[in-house]
Write a structure and sequence with these properties.
- The protein has 518 residues and is an alpha/beta fold.
- The chain contains 15 helices and 13 strands.
- It has two domains: 1-212 and 504-516; 218-478, Nitrilase/N-carbamoyl-D-aminoacid amidohydrolase (4-Layer Sandwich), CATH 3.60.110.
- The chain has helices spanning 2-7, 9-24, 33-46, 51-69, 78-102, 108-123, 149-180, 191-205, 242-260, 284-297, 347-353, 391-399, 419-434, 480-484, 487-517, and strands spanning 218-226, 268-270, 301-308, 314-323, 327-333, 363-364, 372-375, 378-384, 405-409, 438-442, 448-450, 456-459, 466-474.
- Strands 1, 2, 3, 4, 5, 6 and 13 form a seven-stranded mixed beta sheet that branches. The protein has a six-stranded mixed beta sheet with strand order 7-8-9-10-11-12, covered by helices on one side.
- A hairpin with a 5-residue loop joins strand 10 (438-442) and strand 11 (448-450).
Length: 518
């Protein structure tokens, strides 16, 4: 690495700057045009390089990008920030190698854009189920590219952003050749640059031609309770029952406001993830407090709670439908626990080396089914916290019959770090992708209501107690993205990988022919 840095110091520095530019494209900064600029920059820097040089430049791009993007993990420790960033940057290193090799082919901007999709496909799944943070699509949740999500999901948005950036790079290369080449008069000399620029504009504007369905088949009145926590950070729980009492208190106040006519009566109430900080099935006091709040408001409440798992070594992260008459009923168990946060891979070996992992005393037991729940008059899809980043989980929830989506989350550990804004951006993209209204319910913020077209209609401040009331549109129609599923992602990724293989074969054939001529 030191040798690569010395040999490519200038390009390495430029790659790092491009990586930082990409980080600034994401919330909380949200300068989304920088995502296109960063892609163009990496394409130019890897062009004309060997695969090994391209890999180094990809790593030099990816490491500062992820360090800045994931800085919210510093709450756990800077070693977590750097360690995860190195792992994620390794995927971008492979991307850099692919960009360098495919740049030798005609139509190289197309192959490069497909490789961006392939890189995200791998990173979203590996290791331990993947970590989708930092996808180009998540920097473009309210941009001209966003409507494309209704056609091909987040992967198609990533492809369009990468294609636009790569075409801009191709236009820059063509202009540079004009400056460096012989002076030839006539319009034909401008054709390559003009063509690349026009195609880049077409990729940028394609989303305007995509209709985003928003017409509601029905509506339901919801109230979303943000009870708040005792303190931000790793020890947000505070004293036992504090968080539960906060949500009970806010719900009882809502019931009083409804009775006095100061607030409309909801059809259902949504509490966030971990709104009960104690297992209501093993702690009678927690059960009684929840029942009191639910009966006071008089409608079903979706409660977030950690409950005992199937054995003493496991716990389950659940959303529980709590009825004012019959009590707890249907529930959803989080399918994708977070590695090292909600379970410890290779626990026996790693806890001997990393003592901090002892703070995760029991592993979360993963659920097996989708989060479609009948809550009062509405059939809603429950998705818990980081699951909103995973295409398959949200897709399966919608196709199983969810008429709107609920994201129960607890971001108290990462409050005021930018992480809640990044997660809310994902909710906005999911709304457009699936044509569904999205409710994000957070213990400490940001709680929000997102329309099916991705607009944020309401949102709370962080670390405040608040209740949002909204008339939520319910939809039954599926988008094209719902119908095609992951097919666009796998198709684009395979095209990228096949183009890389073709470039390698053609390169070897060309070297063989040159050697034979010599």
């Amino acid at each position: 690495m030191a040798h690569a840095l010395r040999a490519n110091a200038r390009r390495s520095a430029l790659a790092a700057l491009c990586g930082l530019a990409l980080a600034a494209a994401f919330p909380p900064y949200g300068v989304w045009p920088l995502s296109v600029v960063a892609v163009a920059g990496l394409a130019l820097l890897t062009r004309g390089r060997t695969a090994r040089q391209g890999a180094w430049l990809g790593f030099a791009f990816g490491l500062p990008f992820f360090v800045w993007l994931l800085m919210w993990l510093r709450v756990i420790g800077w070693d977590a920030v750097v360690g995860l960033s190195v792992i994620e940057a390794a995927f971008v290193a492979v991307l850099g190698a692919g960009l360098a090799v495919t740049a030798r082919l005609r139509a190289w901007p197309l192959w490069g854009a497909c490789l961006w999709v392939a890189e995200e496909l791998a990173r979203d799944r590996l290791p331990f189920g993947g970590f989708p943070w930092g996808r180009l699509a998540f920097a473009n949740t309210s941009t001209p590219f966003t409507p494309l999500a209704a056609l091909g999901g987040a992967p198609l948005v990533t492809f369009a952003v990468a294609l636009c950036g790569s075409l801009l790079a191709a236009a820059a290369v063509a202009v540079w050749r004009l400056r460096k080449g012989p002076v030839v008069f006539g319009p034909r000399r401008f054709v390559p640059a003009a063509t690349a620029a026009v195609l880049a504009v077409a990729a940028f504007a394609a989303g305007y031609a995509v209709p985003v369905p928003t017409a509601a088949d029905d509506t339901v009145r919801v109230a979303i309770v943000q009870g708040n926590v005792q303190q931000p950070g790793m020890h947000f729980l505070g004293r036992p029952l504090k968080i539960l009492n906060n949500h009970v208190e806010a719900t009882l106040k809502l019931a009083e406001d409804v009775k006095a006519g100061r607030a409309p009566k909801p059809d259902l109430v949504i509490w966030p993830e971990n709104s009960s900080d104690m297992d209501p099935f093993s702690e009678p006091q927690a059960y009684a407090l929840i029942t009191e709040a639910v009966r006071a408001v008089g409608v079903p409440v979706l409660v977030g709670a950690l409950v005992d798992g199937p054995d003493a070594d496991h716990v389950q992260n659940e959303g529980i439908v709590w009825d004012p008459e019959s009590g707890p009923g249907d529930h959803y168990t989080k399918q994708h626990p977070v590695p090292f946060g909600e379970y410890v891979p290779f626990r026996e070996q790693l806890t001997k080396v990393i003592k901090r992992l002892d703070q995760v005393p029991r592993d979360f037991y993963p659920g097996k089914g989708s989060g479609v729940l009948q809550i009062g008059p509405a059939r809603l899809g429950d998705v818990i916290c980081f699951e909103v980043a995973y295409d398959g989980i949200v897709h399966d929830t919608v196709t199983a019959g969810a008429r709107a989506l609920v994201i129960q989350t607890n971001n108290a550990t990462y409050g005021r770090t930018g992480q809640p804004e990044q997660q809310l951006a994902m909710s906005r993209l999911r709304a457009v992708e699936h044509g569904r209204a999205v409710v994000t319910a957070a213990t400490s913020g940001i709680t929000a209501v997102v329309a099916p077209d991705g607009r944020i209609e309401q949102q709370t401040e962080e670390f405040t107690q608040a209740v949002l009331s909204a008339q939520l549109p319910l939809r039954d129609d599926l988008t094209v993205a719902d119908r095609v599923g992951s097919a666009p992602e796998w198709t684009l990724a395979m095209v990228g990988l096949l183009s890389w293989a073709a470039a390698i074969v053609l390169g070897r054939r060309g070297r063989t022919e040159t050697e034979e001529q010599q």
